[in-house]
Amino acid sequence: MSMAPQELENNASKYASEAIKFDSQGARGMAIANYQKAIDSLVKLLQLYPNSKLNALYKERCNSYHGRIKALQDSHGIEPAVDPEASAEEQKKSVERQEDENDFEELVMKEKPNISWNEVIGLEDAKSALRESIVYPTKRPDLFPLGWPKGMLLYGPPGTGKTMLAAATASEMDGYFINVDASSMMSKWLGEAEKNVSKLFRMARRYAEKEGKPVILFVDEVDSLLGSRNSEVGGEIRTKNQFLTEMDGVNGKGKDLMMYVIGATNKPWSLDWPFLRRFQKRIYVSLPTQEARESLFTQYTKDLEIGARVSSLELAKIFDGYSASDIKDVCQAAHLKTVHELFDSPDYHEPVEGEEAQKPRAITTADFREIMARRKPSVSTEMIRAYHKWSEEFRAL
Question: Which end of the chain is more exposed for a tag (fewer CB within 10 A), N or C?
Answer without folding.
Answer: N
